[in-house]
Amino acid sequence: MIKNVEPNNFIEDIIVDDIKKLKLKKIITRFPPEPNGYLHIGHPKAITINFNTAKKFGGYTNLRMDDTNPEKESFEYVESIKEDIKWLGFNWKHLKYASDYYGKLYKIAIKLIKKGLAYVCDLSAAEISEYRGNFTTPGKNSPYRNRSIKENLKLFKEMKAGKYPDGSKTLRAKIDMASPNINMRDPIMYRICRAKHFRKGDKWCIYPIYDFAHPISDALEGITHSLCSMEFEDHRPLYDWFVTNAGFVGKHKPRQVEFARLNVEGALLSKRYINKMVNNGWVDGYDDPRLLTIKGMRRRGYPAKAIVDFVTRVGVAKADSVVEYSYLEACVREELNKTATRVMAVVDPIKVLITNYPIGRTELVAIDNNPNDKKLGNHSCTFTREIFIDRDDFNENPPAKYFRLTPNGYVRLKGAYIIKCDKVVKDKKGNIVCLECSYVENSKSGNDTSGLKVKGTIHWVSESEAVKIDIHNLKPVIKQDAEFNGDNLEEVFDKESRTVYKKAVAEPFILQIPNGTPMQFLRNGYYIRDSKFDYETPTFINTVGLKDSFNK
Ligand code: ATP
Ligand code: MG
Predict the structure, then answer these.
(1) Does 231 participate in catalysis according to the annotation?
(2) Which ligand is nearest to the Cα of residue 311, counting in written order?
(3) With a 6 A CB cut-off, is 34 part of the ligand 1 pocket?
(4) Which residue, 259, 285, 317, sits at the end of a domain?
(5) pLDDT value of residue 34
(6) Which ligand does the CA of 33 lie closest to?
(7) Is 104 a catalytic residue?
(8) Is 271 one of the catalytic residues?
(9) Which of the following is catalytic: 261, 414, 475, 523?
(10) How much distance in Å is there from the Cα of 527 to the middle of ligand 2?
(11) pLDDT at residue number 483
């Protein structure tokens, strides 16, 4: 049954209207990727709109692979797209392929020929585009436009039977070469192409063009609303022309509704650019964590929920917009704050010797896995006489309001004791080698009777159990301040967008966190272990920092 809903955007307004006008019984949408590449941050917008709109009305969504260009498509992409959609948390009702409909599409083409609405044309691709005219000049008719129905039927059947070489003939819709909409100037419906289709093999040597295959596949599948991005707006009259002339009318006629594409500032989403970066080895694959592919974001540690939240918050509109990258990061940070496990890692270690803590003594202290959610429990780490703290957390000449460690100052070690810095030990060059400190015995966290008021708490790692880690710091692939104009990728690509940092140490608990799980390095940022680069030293990449640079 269809659900009664309060419409929240223009798409839902249209659907509510159509339900009344056409007495629709179910709302069915589809997500129609072409399996010729990997999904990126733009796709979740189309996915979310199609799936959530149908769901809201109690309907469902099909996943349809729009596989009409055999030269570029493969099973590998099909599998990758399926995996990404599932990971994002969406479930399709039926998995379909445009190629499921090749037989029916062929029959509908024959029907259109018989109605005098399609003809076989012998113009070359170059001639077709020349005859088509442009925005200011109307097109002119093809000399083959007035072939008889009988001749067209014969030629089209021969095209299918393989009688003609690739590119030598096309089947075209007979619409209007003077139409102000160039898409309506006798668009191509079929081309001859002897490429092996990944599902159909060599069965076909003619392939339907997207503009014909897509609307008819929608209609055959019973799609009620074909929700797609704005660039298809000018194709809508053609969409309507094909479904109507193929005989799908009233409630059997699917309706195309367009929404704005999602663009993210500084993100290179086009397959052309991503392929170039991958093929040149500038990035390490389609799942490089610097890329805004779904696989890249997943490897970077972006939670699926943050990605869906992001596209949902950007909202459904008709006007194209470019969204700041920092807004996506804000969504990631918000989700990770709720879910990420806290661990202690010291990025730039200085040694601290706690002179009054007995040699050989160890103590377990508890660190909350997530202070926002006590249900997530805690883990323990070992406190000892020799520890590391971050260089940043000590300052010999502290500015005002510096609450971390200073000479003769006090600070709390997370989960453990308050310490005081008694002596700064330096080498001949003046570099700090070690801080000699003393701990306050009755100041242990949770059981502090010292009466000391200490403003700062810093993280630390025991020397004896410290695990060496590598950190790969990632930045956007386009250099800051560089202007990418579409052609200068080589020039603007930042070869320093991945830098390797080797000094950090962490508590051993870090190794128990399952792969693919983002974590927070306390007081620093969110990180995830990178399985691909994890050779000898455990390797972590920065998911997102703690500070929000997005201006709400
Ligand atoms: P690209 O050209 O960016 O590589 P595409 O449009 O060729 O992507 P398809 O597989 O054809 O990729 O897209 C499947 C669906 O996803 C289309 O219906 C399209 O409307 C939608 N889509 C693709 N990119 C975006 C985007 N940036 N914002 C919103 N929807 C998008
Ligand atoms: Mg496309």
Answers:
(1) no
(2) 1
(3) yes
(4) 259
(5) 96
(6) 1
(7) no
(8) yes
(9) 261
(10) 33
(11) 87
The arithmetic mean of pLDDT across residues 87-96, rounded, is: 98
Mean model confidence pLDDT for the chain:
95
Task: Assess whether 117 and 193 both reside in one domain.
Answer: yes
Query: In this structure, which residue's CA is closest to atom 9 in ligand 1?
Result: 33
Q: Which of 259, 275, 290 finishes a domain?
A: 259
The model carries a pTM of 0.94
Q: How much is the pLDDT for 491?
A: 93
Number of domains the chain is built from: 2
> Residue 336: what pLDDT?
97
* pLDDT tens per residue, range 324-340: 999 999 999 999 999 99
Mean pLDDT within 222-237: 96
CA 32 / ligand 2 centre spacing (Å) = 9
Nearest-atom number in ligand 1 for the CA of 81 is 10
Atom of ligand 1 nearest to the CA of 32: 14
For residue 85, give the DSSP letter.
H
Q: What confidence category does residue 171 fall into, taking pLDDT thresholds of 50, 70 and 90?
A: very high
132 and 81 in a common domain:
yes
- pLDDT value at 552 more than 70: no
Place of tokens 């704050």: 337
As a whole number, mean pLDDT of residues 510-532 equals: 93
34 alpha carbon – ligand 2 mean position (Å): 7
Domain of 310?
A: 264-339
Contacts of 156-160 with C-beta under 8 Å, sequence gap 24+, read 156/109, 156/110, 156/113, 156/120, 156/190, 159/120, 159/190, 159/192, 159/205, 159/206, 160/106, 160/204, 160/205, 160/206
Q: Which burial class, exposed, middle or buried, applies to 223 when counting CB atoms under 10 A from its CB (0-12, 13-18, 19+)?
A: buried
DSSP string, 121-178: E---HHHHHHHT--SSS-----TTTT--HHHHHHHHHHHHHT-S-TTS-EEEE---TT
